């Protein structure tokens, strides 16, 4: 979960100013937390408090209404409807990370991931994106190698995860659908050598940088045994007390197998 927050904050300044390089300063005054962090922590809060996911997402939207949400999510959150809007956007994949740290079995992870998607992203591709990311995190934190993680995701999602980033990067641009952004973020994790390289690679695609860095970072955190302490400290400075408190409670309760 911390990996998703760190990825979001580092990637935030490149969301609409894309770069095609891994050579950039990780943190700057232009960095901020966005809807990716807010909704990831909303998922964490729902799990901690055993609240409905949709109700919690709406509450967090009203607390932070100007964090860069997609237009359809904003309309849903500001309305009184309980109906989802058939989205296949990558919002379902960027907020799902906490479920992989709460569940004890892969089947439970997949079920919880679907539950986090359904309030808004009930399209099959939206659910698939959330499940792929959650499964990758769960398998990584339980010691699976990259080949095993890749095989499972390919078999269950049909994503093409064999493309090298050098082939993807030149023509890649901003894309918010799960099916055209989640596989690419996963490829960044698979090509990474450590947590930081996963973030740098995700930003270097020149796409939806904060969301793809959040996805790659959430998996890299689990695979590489946590986020470097100095990076955590640098990122958490950007959070306000409300979000910090949720982050601390969730980490204390569930991230006990990482060297935080």
Instruction: Flag low-confidence runs.
Output: none
Radius of gyration: 16 Å
Largest pleated sheet: none
> Rough shape?
globular
CATH topology, what is it called?
ADP-ribosylglycohydrolase fold
What is the C-level CATH assignment?
Mainly Alpha
Percent of residues in helical segments? 55-70%
Q: How do the SSEs run, as a string of H and E? A: HHHHHHHHHHHHHHH
| Total domain units | 1
Tell me, rounded to a whole number, the average pLDDT: 96
Oligomer type: single chain
Name the CATH superfamily assignment.
Answer: ADP-ribosylation/Crystallin J1
Give the end-to-end Cα distance, rounded to a whole number of Å.
Answer: 12 Å
Structural class: mainly alpha
- Percent of residues in beta strands: under 5%
What does this structure look like?
By secondary structure, this protein is an all-alpha fold. The chain has a single domain (2-16, 31-254), classed as ADP-ribosylglycohydrolase fold. It is built from 15 helices and no strands. Helix 1 (2-11) packs across helix 14 (229-236) and helix 8 packs parallel to helix 11. The longest helix is centred in the middle third of the chain and has 18 residues, at 124-141. The protein starts with a helix and ends in a 6-residue tail after the last helix. The model has no long low-confidence stretch (mean pLDDT 96).
How are the secondary structure elements laid out?
Blueprint: H1 2-11, H2 35-49, H3 53-63, H4 71-78, H5 91-94, H6 99-102, H7 106-117, H8 124-141, H9 146-157, H10 165-168, H11 178-191, H12 195-204, H13 209-223, H14 229-236, H15 241-254
